[in-house]
Design a protein that fits this description.
Blueprint lengths: L1 H23 L18 E3 L1 E2 L5 E2 L11 H5 L5 H4 L21 E5 L4 E5 L17 H8 L16 H10 L7 H4 L7 H9 L3 H7 L4 E4 L18 H4 L4 E4 L10 E3 L7 H8 L1 E3 L11 H4 L4 H4 L29 H5 L26 H5 L3 H4 L9 E5 H4 L16 E8 L5 E7 L3 E6 L2 E4 L2 H11 L6 E2 L2 E2 L3 H13 L6 E6 L2 E5 L5 E4 L7 E4 L17 H4 L4 H4 L1 E4 L8 E4 L1 H4 L3 H50 L1
Antiparallel strand pairs: 1-8, 2-3, 4-5, 6-7, 9-10, 10-11, 11-12, 12-20, 13-14, 13-17, 15-16, 17-18, 18-19, 21-22
Length: 622
């Protein structure tokens, strides 16, 4: 019996070693291969910490369980981390269509910029604003599911020790796949804010509780062998597992969902209009019809999730990506209707009377997604930008950053689509027409030196006057803080100090508004833009072309509006001429209808007279 036990142990060790080796090579593990069953396998498994030690009910727990080690026993972690939610830091991954960036704000310096590790035009690399991977994770890790920058080793000496204390922010599998109603992603965000990166995923589980804060620990703190005493020990990061967590074999049940709950997606992907309550808005028509997010945004084991835009297959490794765009679901592969219903019962649009040019110049979302346009753009908040759902967030309507919706603008594919918009604001140096951002930390001392009085707060900004901006630019130049000419980008303009010392505004590409497409909420056909006829968009002063887009700026005198048509990429004079022709068209239509009635009446009179003559002639013959 003893010999058999030893052989079993050796076999298990060999199997685990083979699994680990396979994962390092990116090969599929046991949990990556499906046998075709739609049933979800029951996950009753052992908990392993980052040292790959088994955690039991009787342990004096020091380290939390690790998602990478625990889930990685059966699922290839290296394959998963190549998925879209985790691979932004990989320069070899195509950026694809522009998406929502992270937005870095600093109120005191008047900074509001879109940052991303992806090479999207108009975004900045985080390091350009002094955000190392560790700082980026602490700032934005609240609403990304771990991995990516959260697992990058810092190269800055002062952060290396902090990285050892906080640990890595591994991929949190349960952020998406957790099905337990007690799963708490807000607690995950809370742990990230405390720099408890290695504890965050475990803290979000229904069966674990984490106390203490790595943020309060000294750089010399060793989480592997905690040795603090007294009050300091009470602040140490600690984890405890609730009673009943472990079964008699020291295994734990995980409530895993393959068809991920939409509520899991909402924590990172919610959007809300300022001053508009949730109950005043309708949910996306697809979700209202019973679908979930992952019915369209699908992925294989590589987690290369479908984003859902036309042409995605050209850069995506997912071979069916285009099948789950608007056209892919509602039309046939050739773009023509085949039956009265398409994929999953989706209605096939008829678009009776709609000129074909609309499909060449506009996306499906232009008519069907986002709120209907109004005379002025609305201000919106998003989870990624404003931390929606996180503890103690700023709920004021003016909370930064300021995002405008809905803006109808020409996208990279040359078609008009509904967009979100943000105006970048940052200090920079200008040399040979190249703009190089200055970090808020480098500008803040200068601002505090120049402006000693309390600055007024308006619409979320600590406001600057023209004179203050000019003085700050002069001081930056005199202190040698810039290589070239000091400038301030905000409100769609680049500001510099003129020869007379006053502020001078100029156009520059770096000051252009940054936009990203709106995909949801999708409205049904009965609520689509254009359901009321051509005049919904083309009539004079209709917001589709002639609405006002708010220009956001921390400079007191620079908050203005621009017309929507500026972003549509169409000729303003021609568009207005066409819009005015609708009035003439209606006049002609009315005249034509009246003329037809008159003509019909005349024809009826003559026809009646002719009929009488025919009858009289017939009577004479009789």
């Amino acid at each position: 019996m003893k010999k058999g036990l030893i052989q079993a142990i050796i076999l298990c060790c060999g199997l685990l070693a083979n699994c680990a080796a396979a994962d390092e090579k990116g090969e599929r593990l046991m949990g990556d291969e499906s046998d075709g069953s739609r049933a979800v396998p029951i996950h009753v498994i052992e908990l392993l910490n980052e040292e790959k030690d088994k955690i039991t009910a009787t342990d004096e727990v020091v380290l939390p369980f690790s998602m990478q080690k625990t889930c990685g026993e059966c699922h290839s972690y290296n394959t998963i981390k190549g998925g879209w939610h985790f691979n932004a830091i990989d320069a070899n991954v195509p950026a694809g269509r522009t998406g929502q960036p992270w937005i870095y704000i600093d109120k005191t310096t008047g900074t509001q910029v879109p940052v991303s590790y992806r090479n999207w035009p108009g975004t900045f690399r985080p390091e350009e604003f002094g955000l190392s991977s560790w700082k980026f994770t602490k700032l934005f890790g609240r609403q990304f599911p771990g991995g990516g920058p959260g697992e990058v080793e810092s190269e800055q000496m002062e952060e290396i020790s902090r990285g050892f204390v906080s640990g890595k922010l591994e991929i949190n599998c349960l952020a998406c796949h957790g099905g337990h109603s007690g799963h708490d992603q807000a607690e995950y965000a809370n742990q990230v804010a405390r720099e408890n990166f290695r504890w965050a995923a475990a803290a979000s589980c229904s069966f674990a509780r984490v106390s203490g804060s790595a943020k309060d620990m000294p750089d010399s703190y060793d989480p592997m062998m905690p040795s603090l005493t007294g009050e300091a020990a009470s602040k140490e990061p600690k984890i405890e597992y609730l009673a009943g967590t472990f079964d008699p074999k020291d295994k734990v049940f995980f409530d895993i969902r393959r068809r991920i709950l939409s509520e899991r997606c909402y924590f990172c992907h919610s959007t809300t209009q300022v001053n508009l309550e949730k109950w005043e808005t309708d949910e996306d028509v697809h979700l209202s019809s019973g679908l979930t997010c992952v019915d369209c945004h699908r992925n294989e084991v590589d987690h290369n999730i479908i984003r859902g835009y036309e042409g995605e297959t050209s850069i995506s490794k997912n071979p069916v990506a285009d099948d789950f765009s608007c056209k892919g679901c509602h039309l046939s592969a050739k773009g023509t209707p085949v039956t009265s219903v398409a994929r999953l019962g989706a209605p096939v649009p008829e678009h009776k009377g709609l000129p074909e040019i609309h499909f060449e110049k506009m996306t499906c979302t232009a008519c069907h997604s986002g709120p209907l346009p109004e005379n002025e753009t609305s201000q919106v908040k998003t989870s990624m930008a404003h931390g929606l759902g996180v503890y103690n967030i700023d709920k004021s309507p003016d909370a930064l950053p300021h995002i405008a919706m809905v803006v109808f603008a020409k996208g990279a594919d040359g078609r008009i689509a509904p967009q979100n918009l943000i105006w970048p604001a940052f200090w920079a140096s200008l040399k040979e027409d190249k703009v190089t951002p200055l970090t808020p930390d480098s500008v803040r001392p200068v601002i505090e030196q120049v402006i000693t009085e309390t600055r007024p707060v308006d619409a979320g900004w600590q406001k600057f006057t023209d004179e203050q901006v000019a003085k700050i630019l002069a001081e930056l130049s005199s202190q040698g803080a810039v290589e070239g000419k000091a400038v301030y980008i905000c409100g769609g303009k680049m500001y510099s100090q003129g020869d007379d010392g006053k502020l001078v505004a100029a156009e520059h590409s770096s000051a252009s508004a940054f936009m990203w497409p709106i995909g949801h909420n999708v409205r049904p056909a009965a609520q689509s833009l254009g359901i009321g006829g051509c005049g919904d968009c083309h009539a004079m002063n209709k917001p589709f072309f002639f609405g006002k887009v708010a220009v956001d700026s921390p400079v007191v005198s620079k908050a203005v509006f621009v017309e929507m048509i500026k972003f549509a990429g169409v000729n303003k004079a021609y568009t207005k001429l066409f819009a005015s022709s609708l009035l003439f068209y209606r006049f002609v239509a009315v005249i034509s209808v009246v003329a037809c009635f008159i003509a019909a009446a005349i024809i009826a009179v003559y026809a009646f007279a002719g009929l009488i003559r025919i009858l009289k002639t017939a009577a004479r013959k009789d």
